[in-house]
């Protein structure tokens, strides 16, 4: 036994030991990252996110094939773009600081680009057929169903789809980007099929927003999905109300719009595990009562 242990010790070269330690650290970081959602200090969370992204990039450099590192990068860059960069862009837009808003838009795009890049790399660890499958809607759906068939796959698919759809929403003036919206929608649809209640029913909310993207879209389906998501989470994930209020703006439902905004602003701390997202929802909701925002909805 002593000889076996000695042999194993000698076999673990410095490079092997470094890899084992790195992979262990990355796995632990992914588990610990869930606690980040409990932060309620917006400014602290922003600084921590920026530092975390630098750390995750370094982890990926040390362990390029590590799926946990790839996941942290997809989730991190997508969340950073929506939660912080787009928030700054919205503030600049409302203050008529056009140059700053345009700069922030470019920053958000770069963050989403990075999330999508790492996301497609992550999905390729399960199946490398994305480039061939994306040629049309039907082939992509078939590939997604054949290649991703477990609840565990929903997590990866959701964050890649989230970054993809958010990027399209950011760049609605880019026809080429809008033309590829179906890619994010199909991925989100597969995540929804596999685990509709993942991350406070986020796949359901994302698809509801898609179905309610215009007043001529699938409005009834959007309302039903929003209401179901609110029921699922007992109205404790305020980003659902926020997204629902944005839908109410699109369909010019003034009563629903102000009801949802008031609900967000009046909520205390309904879900500690969604505290950061709820904090961001409150920031956005406060702006939704500003004259410029309500005027954009056609509300007097």
Largest sheet: none
Order of helices and strands: HHHHHHHHHHHHHHHH
Low-confidence spans: pLDDT under 50, at least 5 residues?
2-12
Structural class: mainly alpha
Name the shape in a single word. globular
Structure description:
The protein is mostly helical and 300 residues long. 77% of the residues lie in helices and 0% in strands. It has 16 helices and no strands. The longest helix is centred in the first third of the chain and has 28 residues, at 67-94. The protein is globular. It starts with a helix and ends with a helix.
Summary of the model, kept short:
The protein has 300 residues and is mainly α. It has helices at residues 2-11, 14-32, 42-62, 67-94, 98-124, 130-133, 137-147, 151-170, 175-179, 181-194, 198-211, 219-232, 238-250, 254-266, 275-287, 291-296.
Salient structural properties:
single chain, 300 residues, mainly alpha, 77% helix, disordered N terminus
Topology (SSEs and partners):
Layout: H1 2-11, H2 14-32, H3 42-62, H4 67-94, H5 98-124, H6 130-133, H7 137-147, H8 151-170, H9 175-179, H10 181-194, H11 198-211, H12 219-232, H13 238-250, H14 254-266, H15 275-287, H16 291-296
């Amino acid at each position: 036994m002593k000889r076996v242990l000695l042999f194993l010790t000698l076999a673990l070269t410095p490079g092997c030991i470094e890899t084992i330690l790195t992979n262990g650290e990355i796995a632990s970081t992914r588990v610990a990252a869930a606690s980040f959602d409990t932060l309620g200090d917006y400014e602290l969370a922003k600084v921590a996110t920026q530092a975390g992204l630098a750390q995750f990039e370094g982890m990926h450099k040390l362990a390029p094939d590590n799926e946990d590192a790839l996941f942290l990068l997809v989730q991190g860059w997508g969340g950073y773009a929506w939660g912080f960069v787009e928030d700054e862009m919205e503030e600049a837009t409302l203050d008529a600081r056009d140059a700053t808003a345009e700069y922030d838009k470019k920053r958000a795009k770069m963050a989403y680009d990075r999330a999508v890049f790492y996301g497609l790399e992550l999905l390729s660890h399960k199946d490398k057929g994305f480039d061939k499958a994306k040629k049309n809607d039907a082939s992509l759906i078939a590939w997604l169903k054949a290649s991703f068939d477990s609840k565990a796959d929903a997590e990866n698919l959701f964050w890649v789809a989230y970054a993809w759809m958010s990027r399209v929403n950011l760049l609605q003036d880019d026809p080429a980007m809008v033309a590829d919206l179906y890619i994010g929608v199909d991925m989100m649809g597969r995540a929804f099929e596999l685990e509709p209640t993942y991350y406070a029913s986020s796949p359901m909310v994302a698809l509801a927003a898609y179905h309610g993207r215009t007043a001529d879209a699938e409005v009834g389906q959007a309302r039903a999905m929003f209401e179901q998501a609110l029921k699922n989470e007992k109205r404790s994930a305020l980003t659902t109300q926020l997204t629902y209020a944005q839908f109410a703006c699109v369909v010019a439902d003034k009563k629903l719009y102000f009801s949802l905004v008031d609900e967000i602003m009046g909520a205390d701390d309904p879900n500690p595990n969604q505290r950061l997202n709820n904090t961001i929802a409150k920031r956005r909701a406060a702006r939704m009562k500003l004259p410029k925002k309500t005027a954009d909805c056609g509300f007097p």
